[in-house]
Amino acid sequence: MIARLSPARRGVTVAALGTAQTVSWASSYYIPAVLAVPMAESFGLSPVWVFGAFSMALVVSAIVGPWAGARIDGFGGRGVLMLSNLIFAFGLCLLATAPVPVMLYLGWAVIGFGMGIGLYEAGFATLAGIYGKDARGPITGITLIAGFASTVGWPLSGIMLATWGWREACLGWALIHIFIALPLNAWLPRGSEALPKPATPASEGPSPSRAALWVLAFVFAVTWFNATAMAAHLPGLLQAAGASTAVAIAAGALIGPAQVAARVLEFGLLRRFHPLASTRLAAAAHPVAAVALISVGGPAAYVFAIMHGAGNGIMTIAKGTLPLSLFGPAGYGQRLGWLNAPARISQAAAPLIFGAALTGWGVHAIWLTAGLGMLALTALLMLKRN
User: Fold this and answer.
1) 225-245, pLDDT tens digit by residue?
2) 233, 354 in Cβ contact below 8 A?
3) What is the pLDDT, as a whole number, of residue 236?
């Protein structure tokens, strides 16, 4: 039974889950940017080893995602999200106390498990269990809040690092999970106890819905490859295009605000349209931005960053809203886990692959991500709205 909550309770639910998601993203996906170097130095390693451990965590999250989604479908998301906070805290404590690199990798593997059951996919599935097909607005709402995870997480990690050290920073994030995120997730409505599983087609051949699942999995893998590649190499790419270091850094700083602004646009204007329309718009943003960068060079750095960030912001919402619109809430959590498993793996590979392309081709490496973006747009044009 889908929960019927008042608008006021809905707003508080979105605020609670969005804040908990901010903690989960800030303490996992965004800590390597600040803590990877001191982590590596304390063991006498290159930072590449720490980033390798983070890539392993992404693969672990891809493996456990479908299982977590199935649990949420069957029992609601509150318990799974609470478990994720405990697992995140445990993994962060392992990092903080790791005496040898092997334990560091074990800590990241545990964090990867937490990512698989505690990031957006789990949050989206939880909202689908609570609100059913009306979850589009709440899904957009939590991405608006958690869109500030890097804005909050990077400075807070930096303050804890400068004040105490990287191990204590990890312990600090573990405590934040226990005393802030865990109570917020515990407060969430229970939602659906058992959404029905989708009916299995009688025919042995691939059904249109199954073909659509493959298309969406490809789109999400491609777009998240591009997003992660840009997150890792954007300053270097813009400098290769002719931008100064200062301009490259300033342009990169616009990605976050562009993502949030695009999500506000989706929440206000674009939600009047089918999610497929906004997803196509998001997929087109990166290729168009790439053409501008190649054509104009360094002066287009700001345009590129804003367009790429806006497209990425809307695509994050589309990961939750488009499958919900096309296939409904039945079996949504497990389906979302399978859809995003390839995306997690592509994220793990993106920094290495695009870094090699940037080294070998310079600014023309952008044609790699632009081409992938065009393939994603073409695939989306093949889909039909329900």
Assistant:
1) 999 888 878 888 999 999 898
2) yes
3) 86
How far lies 289's CA from each of 203, 209, 352, 378, in Å? Answer: 43, 32, 22, 17
Compute the Cα dihedral for 11, 17, 20, 24 and give only its sign.
negative
Helix (H, G, I), strand (E, B) or coil at 207: coil
DSSP 266-287: HHHTGGGS-HHHHHHHHHHHHH
Domains (ranges, CATH) in the chain? 7-186 (1.20.1250.20), 208-382 (1.20.1250.20)
Residue 104 pLDDT greater than 80, yes or no: yes
Tell which wins on pLDDT, 104 or 198: 104
Output the DSSP codes for 224-280. HHHHHHHHHHHHHHHHHTT--HHHHHHHHTTHHHHHHHHHHHHHHTGGGS-HHHHHH
pLDDT of residue 105 exceeding 60, the answer is yes
Q: Which helix (H) or strand (E) holds 53?
A: helix 47-75
- Quick check: helix, strand or coil at residue 204? coil
